[in-house]
Amino acid sequence: MLGKLRSILHPLNPLTSQQLLFRRLLSALAYRSSPGSSDEEDDPKYKIRKQDPEGEYVHLHKSKGQHILTNPRVLDCIVRRAGIRPTDTVLEVGPGTGNLTLKLLEAAQSVVAIEVDRRMVDVLVKRVADRSFGDKLTVIQKDALKAEFPPFDLLVANIPYGISSPLLVKLVYGPNRFRNATLLLQKEFSRRLLANPGDSEYNRLAVNVKLVADVELMMDVSKRDFVPIPKVDSSVVIIRPKAQVPTVDLNEWFAFTRTCFGNKNKTLGATFKQKRKLIEILKTSKTSSCKSGVAGCSLDEKDGMDRGEKSQSGNITFSSSWDGEVGLLKEKIVSILRLGGFEDKRPWKLSNDELLHLLRLLNGAGVYFHGHAQPQVTEDAS
């Protein structure tokens, strides 16, 4: 009966409800047949059959997020809603065995697939060749987080859950210009990404992504549409880069949002009254001002810094005489928060426009959150 799992590799023809039911029963039967297995890779429900005469199996590493989307209706909907043009180059991350890839190749001029698992690459290349699409596919066998993305028009992908956050940041803050990205994500993760100010799920990742892109929910996808079945459902979202983004030092913005959302339920007044936080801000403010060549900036002891003393890491060290400066900084920040109406506000209830306004007020008063005076691209946004 396990031979029937071959159908996983053939989602191109819509399955009847009876076929879907049979496949799910078969999967459940395979699971019950080896209840004592301690190694998930020995469990039949984590295997798919290669398309070769020997009929060997490919083990799916569930711990690495290898969940194959098998529902042809969902695959068709993703490709249709992605808005692919015949002249487009589509980037796909984590193509797996190629269920989505084959449909992308039918719609686009070319597809660039990034896949780290050599076994999946072998299956993918063979399936594409069997469909005579070989000249339209380019495979990059690398870790998607380390690979340099080639030029592309769209990204359409079933992203492994474990790399969703860093990959998303790499996408929206990377150098590549693209029209949109259609991503299959864990449902809970997508809800956090879709959250708006005032929603309980609103978080730093949503703040940083929505600074440069709009996010829209396409549809939810049942966990039973994957093999092996994951623990949670998924959602498809569309990300569209904004035509105009605010002018802001990204390093400064990322450090500022990290400070604000370190405990998003605290009021900003409470957050910026913490001595440890004030010490960090004082260090970065002085470093940034000095690197910018601000008049009056000094590294003398009278400014609360030990002349010429640096740690082994190269960071400037502070003496114990600077408690007075910390107190003055606290008064300055609290005054800015109070005058701007932010003292009693919680970060998860503020829009990006409000957060940008507060950052400008603080920077204008010489309060900085990152030591670099000049903008520097970073992926520290999640």
Automatic annotation (TrEMBL):
Keywords, in A-Z order: Methyltransferase, RNA-binding, rRNA processing, S-adenosyl-L-methionine, Transferase
Gene Ontology, cellular component aspect: mitochondrion
Gene3D superfamilies per the UniProt record, alphabetical: 1.10.8.480, Vaccinia Virus protein VP39
Name the UniProt record assigns to this protein: rRNA adenine N(6)-methyltransferase
Domain Ribosomal RNA adenine methylase transferase N-terminal: 74-243
Entry's Gene Ontology molecular function annotations: RNA binding; rRNA (adenine-N6,N6-)-dimethyltransferase activity
PANTHER family to which the protein is assigned, alphabetical: DIMETHYLADENOSINE TRANSFERASE (PTHR11727), RIBOSOMAL RNA SMALL SUBUNIT METHYLTRANSFERASE, MITOCHONDRIAL (PTHR11727:SF12)
GTP-binding found in the keyword field: no
UniProt source species: Trapa incisa
EC number(s) stated in the UniProt entry for this protein: 2.1.1.-
List of residues binding S-adenosyl-L-methionine: H67, L69, G94, E115, D143, N158
Family: Belongs to the class I-like SAM-binding methyltransferase superfamily. rRNA adenine N(6)-methyltransferase family.
